[in-house]
Amino acid sequence: MIQTRDMTTAELAALLAFHAEAGVEWLLEDEPVDRIAAFAAEKAARQGGRSATAPSAVGNTGSSAPAAGRSLASRAAPADQRQTARAQPSQSSALPAIPDENAVAEARFAAESARSLTELKTAIEGFSSCNLKTSARSTITAAGAAGSAIMVIGSMPSADDDREGLPFSGRAGLLLDRMLAAIGQSRGSVLVTTIIPWRPPGDRMPSAPETAICRPFIERQIALAEPRQILVLGNFAARFFFGETGTIHALRGKWREIGSGGAALPAMATLHPQELLTAPASKALAWMDLMAFSERLPGA
């Protein structure tokens, strides 16, 4: 079997990318760690240390007991250290902590400083205070027609998006193209993006702090794009914008307003293409939503 020490830098990078796309979040050691034995060794070391100092505390002037205690502690310590080193990850390999409100403030400052979608793209790519960026291959930002009257917003990048570096790639992207074609639009005539710029590991849902950090970026994208209406795709995105806890089936097909920079923009939610691939029977609902959405399009 090939050892990692024999691999080139490019081969190691490809291997890590493969693991990330497969949803691997933790790497296990080759040998199992007996944490019960590690705890027992640590406990024995502590007890040995106390027994070594006990005779002097009660006034015993003999030297044999303290020497025996020191000997026990010295014998137990190396084993304890070896077990502890196996049981606990090193400081350098520990994952960074989830950023707090300071990271949200940094994201807000970076977003508000951008005066165009191009500047905002640069700001997002240079932002490093969100844990999701550490495991993602690409940073996903708005793509398509910057001056379009229609903005399509999904939830978060998929594995295909992360690999291609563009929103709505792969099979879900092809289905979105057909959905847009059904209302006389195309990928080049609308602006598409995602709420979260980085793919969460294993396609898990973003945490509340991660979502809060990404919020200023998507709100700024909307403000700079100035669309006339927004198509919201998926359960997460609908809850994010509408502030409700219902499922996409309860939130879809209704016109609502999204506040952005003091302006209220009309928005409608429907099912995400990935959800339609999983449950094709729901396509009829999505087509109904698209027809209702197209009634407000310019020239309709």
TrEMBL record:
Region ranges (Disordered): 46-98
MF (Gene Ontology): 4 iron, 4 sulfur cluster binding; metal ion binding; uracil DNA N-glycosylase activity
EC number(s) stated in the UniProt entry for this protein: 3.2.2.27
Composition bias, Polar residues: 81-94
CDD domains documented for this protein: UDG-F4_TTUDGA_SPO1dp_like (cd10030)
Keywords: 4Fe-4S, DNA damage, DNA repair, Hydrolase, Iron, Iron-sulfur, Metal-binding
Record field: catalytic activity: Hydrolyzes single-stranded DNA or mismatched double-stranded DNA and polynucleotides, releasing free uracil
Example of a GO biological process term: DNA repair
Pfam families found in the cross-reference section: UDG (PF03167)
Class of this enzyme: hydrolase
Domain of life: Bacteria
All copies of domain Uracil-DNA glycosylase-like, residue ranges: 141-291
UniProt xrefs under NCBIfam families: UDG_fam4
Recorded family membership: Belongs to the uracil-DNA glycosylase (UDG) superfamily. Type 4 (UDGa) family.
Name listed for the protein in its UniProt record: Type-4 uracil-DNA glycosylase
